[in-house]
Write a structure and sequence with these properties.
Blueprint (H helix, E strand, L loop, with lengths): L4 E7 L6 H11 L5 E6 L6 H9 L5 E5 L6 H14 L4 E4 L11 H10 L4 E5 L12 H18 L10 E4 L5 H4 L8 H12 L4 E5 L14 H17 L1
Parallel strand pairs: 1-2, 1-4, 2-3, 5-7
Antiparallel strand pairs: 4-6, 5-6
Length: 236
């Protein structure tokens, strides 16, 4: 397997989280890697902060988009960019401080040594992994997990974005079958990949609540997700 590793991080108004995520990645993950930030036209200093680190590290890249197109769309754009640049080991993660870079090394090692197609993270394997979340957010997250698990008979934590892909075996066309460009891209893609018999492995993680900035997920996103789940179920 090629040694080229890319970490894809979509961002929107994350100026306070750029420094911690870069420092965390370089501290915990010593292998040769590149980081691609995909910015959906942030109106704070997110791009400025990224450019400051680009002066220090040659392996940090920034893809700027003209408007907010959705986190699922950002992941798809990142995958296409990665394959154009010949990256084959691809990690996707959030920039809000909830995805701890300390897990990346384990994910990459499992992917390579055990020859998995995808190594994903699971928030529900540890009973107290969401212990500092608000009751409202924790309840909605668990409800969505249970609805998807039972409707589609899938065991994975399907809505998480912290994943590691082996693009020597994962076909981009299969990922792009997940048509949603927002948060529902994550559970759609895992269902599709699972049905196509890709080898998916999960590791348990703790997921702290965001401490810097504000969540991009709104009530309308949750309602939209529930409708999307129902629609996807009826069509599939």
């Amino acid at each position: 397997m090629t040694s080229k590793i890319l970490i894809i991080i979509p961002v929107y108004n994350e100026q306070g989280n750029i420094k911690p995520i870069i420092k965390g990645i370089f501290h915990h993950f010593k292998k040769e890697k590149s980081i691609l930030f995909i910015d959906d036209n942030s109106n704070d200093k997110t791009q400025q902060k990224i450019r400051e680190y680009q002066k220090k590290y040659k392996n940090i890249f920034l893809k700027k988009r003209k408007t907010k197109l959705g986190i699922g769309s950002a992941h798809k754009a990142g995958f296409k960019w990665a394959l154009e640049k010949k990256y084959k080991t691809i990690i996707t993660m959030d920039c809000d401080g909830t995805h701890n870079p300390k897990y990346i090394n384990k994910m990459v090692n499992l992917l390579r040594k055990k020859k998995f197609d995808i190594v994903s993270t699971n928030r529900f394997l540890n009973s107290d992994s969401l212990k500092n979340w608000s009751y409202w957010r924790k309840s909605l997250t668990k409800l969505r997990h249970l609805v998807i698990k039972n409707l589609f008979n899938i065991k994975y934590d399907s809505s998480g974005a912290f994943r590691c892909y082996n693009f020597n075996s994962v076909n981009l066309r299969d990922l792009l079958e997940a048509k949603n460009n927002s948060y529902s891209f994550f559970w759609q893609s895992i269902i599709i990949l699972s049905r196509k018999n890709y080898k998916i492995h999960e590791i348990a993680i703790n997921l702290p609540a965001r401490s810097i900035g504000s969540s991009k997920m709104k009530l309308k996103d949750i309602l939209s997700a529930l409708l999307t789940i129902l629609s996807f179920y009826l069509k599939n």
